[in-house]
Amino acid sequence: MSGLRKIFSFLKREIVLTIAWMLAIFSSFLVHPSKEYIGYIDWRTLGILWSLMVVIQGFKINGVFDMMTLRLLSKTKWMWQIYAVLIALCFFSAMVITNDVALITFVPFAIMILKRCNNEKALIKVIVLMTIAANLGSMLTPIGNPQNLYLYGGMNEKLIDFILVMLPYTLLAFFALIFCICFLNNKNDRIEEVKIKEDNVCNFRKIVCYVILFILALLTVVHVIPCFVLVVIVLVIALLTEKEIILKADYVLLFTFAGFFIFTGNMVRISYINFVLNNIVGGHELVSGIIASQVISNVPATLLLTNFSSNLKQLLIGVNIGGLGTIIASMASLISYKLFSNEYSDKRKYLFEFSKFNILFLIFYIIVFTISSLI
Hints:
Elements (H helix, E strand, L loop, with lengths): L1 H12 L1 H16 L5 H5 L2 H19 L2 H10 L5 H19 L1 H18 L6 H15 L8 H10 L3 H23 L22 H18 L5 H15 L2 H4 L3 H19 L1 H11 L3 H12 L1 H8 L6 H10 L9 H11 L5 H28 L1
Helix pairs in contact: 2-14, 4-9, 4-11, 4-12, 6-7, 6-8, 6-10, 7-8, 7-19, 8-10, 8-19, 8-20, 9-17, 9-18, 11-12, 14-17, 16-17, 16-18, 17-18
């Protein structure tokens, strides 16, 4: 019985994974399992994603992010500078280490720093803005979030072209976040120098090794190195250096992807659903991406809508901006919520502030889209 309780507790906690496989199992009754199921799964995306997860864990376990954060915070004198550093860390780091890793890494730092500064009044708004920063900063690059990695693989675009598509929306996010900092509590308070003990000692040789692996991952993203070569190299190096980082990869996310791949693959093979979604999505990718993300999150929305899209660039913009809005619009947003709720009980206030800021940002982008379409 205790084993079953643990399983049900896990499935309840990982609700997106549960939904993904419930949909996959349900769809298998409509399209019976066959060898074609293997072809549904984008093994290249999963391989690159796994490799990046392992490499980022290598950086993390060797204290790279801790050191970077502490160096930046040691230069702050005013509270607004601390806000800016914490939000900027999420915004810029998400471009290379993904939005969820950025939040897992820096939200606990924000909680610790604001506690030490006796400024927990601003904590909820700061974490919400850090979450928005991670979600919007990550949209600039193919490795910023899972949906970008998947879409980039199917777009046949050069890296610079991909970045140029998302650059205007990323710049808008940057300036909007700066504007929001102006309204945070106690922003003009002067603070003492932030001194925090560095627990992790950086191993220079290992860091260099992970930097090389990260470069190999980037080369794989732009189709210079085959994916299976990257996976083998990362696996061998990890086994030889720090075996534990292999277990720290987010396998829940990888299995969630697999479940949605099976579900969306089956949906494509059902003629009626194929016809309906083709008519709904085709030519309306941006709106479809935003709306679908609010209900099923932007990663599964991407996997579903890609099969019916004739304009992947518009879908790319839609699912990234669609990460704003509801708490489930981006799976990364749930990470911040969990980290906050583990420390504090004021969940309603957090959800209120989260919804307020996210809806305002979403309205802002909708206004921008509307104006741009009229010009």
